[in-house]
Amino acid sequence: MFTPCPTERSRVIADRVERFVRDVVVPYEADPRCTAHGPTSELIDEMRAKARAAGVMTPHILPDGSHLTQLETAAVLKRSGLSPLGPVAVNTMAPDEGNMFLLGKVGTPAQKQRFLEPLVRGEARSAFFMTEPAEEGGAGSDPSMLQTTATQDGGDWMIRGRKKFITGAEGARVGIVMARTGDGEHAQATMFLVDLPHPAIRLERVIDTIDSSMPGGHAQILLDDLRVPADQVLGEVNEGFRYAQVRLSPARLSHCMRWFGGTVRADEIARAYATTRKAFGKLLIDHEGVGFMLAENLIDLQQAALMIDWCAGVLDGGAAGTAESSMAKVAVSEALYRVADRCVQIMGGLGVSRDTIVEQILREVRAFRIYDGPTEVHKWSLAKKIKRDTLAGTPAR
């Protein structure tokens, strides 16, 4: 089901990751330390110790600190996603993977040593503080609505505001906070690095959500006079929106990679069920209603794999990839949801039970259609690009 690895080094890493996830991580799926708000810190540490011993910790970042290409990363992250716990165990999980990418691109040498290196070693987790409560008019899919403010106070910055749906905030040691630092016709924002936990960063609650794979869940946070020194500004002041795109384009694609692996696993389980379970005198797969669903799964998965690899190639070519990652996010998230939904349907009562991982994969992929931008927001953005390019006479791509 996986497309061929683009290089020999990516094949070796991907094969090693797949063996580790299937043999070591999958048995943990029934562990009681998998909670409604993600695996506990104890479980994460236990799995990561085994990942280090197996040589698969943070496999997309090489020992010299360089990264695999996006196309190579796709081969590895797809396989890490064969279990919802896989990316957590091998340190390819959101938001850490995207935060590591951004820190590697923008951070100073001192910031990388202090904040990035513990993440790469899998000794710390991180959180990205951007989304805000919709009921307070805060930023969601439209970052320009940012309400959290950062004002200079001597040589420091003082940050005030509230954040919501902050993945992994509980238990994280590294935070990237996005706050408004300029007003006027064009809103401006800046990113700040903070150590966690911090007394001025108050966890108000962990929100109950449909998904349950993210360590720490999704929290609502109060930033109450958070003082940040100037040397913890990430990149340049007032460049936060630009850096958000640097992070989000590959991060959207990484979500596609990971959940592709999870949906492949769901399809494997549904195939095994349909080729062993009988009804009305024959195997389920021999009934067209079931056989056709598995055929549609095959088509959707192959198309999703090609879309992921195409977008990865665009990013490797040096393009910003904003439109391409939007296309991939829409096409892949919708396709994977169709696959997961069919798997549940094929398996009937077993599919909606927690006797297999299939029902969780359905829940996780349903959430994927919303986070990092709902399908409709990406379509709207693409429609604007179509209009702009058409009026400018730019050839269609």
From TrEMBL:
Q: Where are the transmembrane segments?
A: none
Keywords, A to Z?
FAD, Flavoprotein, Oxidoreductase
Domain named Acyl-CoA dehydrogenase/oxidase C-terminal is located at 238-385
InterPro entries noted in UniProt:
Acyl-CoA_dehydrogenase, Acyl-CoA_Oxase/DH_mid-dom, Acyl-CoA_Oxase/DH_mid-dom_sf, AcylCo_DH-like_C, AcylCo_DH/oxidase_C, AcylCoA_DH/ox_N, AcylCoA_DH/ox_N_sf, AcylCoA_DH/oxidase_NM_dom_sf
| GO annotations of cellular component type | cytoplasm
This entry's Gene Ontology molecular function terms read:
acyl-CoA dehydrogenase activity; flavin adenine dinucleotide binding
- Which ranges carry the Acyl-CoA dehydrogenase/oxidase N-terminal domain? 7-123
Task: Reply yes or no: does the keyword Signal apply.
Answer: no
Q: Domain Acyl-CoA oxidase/dehydrogenase middle, which positions?
A: 128-206
Task: Give GO BP annotations, semicolon-separated.
Answer: fatty acid beta-oxidation using acyl-CoA dehydrogenase
Cofactor annotation: FAD
Q: Which family does it belong to?
A: Belongs to the acyl-CoA dehydrogenase family.
Task: Fetch the PANTHER family from UniProt.
Answer: ACYL-COA DEHYDROGENASE FAMILY MEMBER 11, MEDIUM-CHAIN SPECIFIC ACYL-COA DEHYDROGENASE, MITOCHONDRIAL-RELATED
Q: How does it assemble?
A: Homodimer.
Q: Protein name, please?
A: Acyl-CoA dehydrogenase
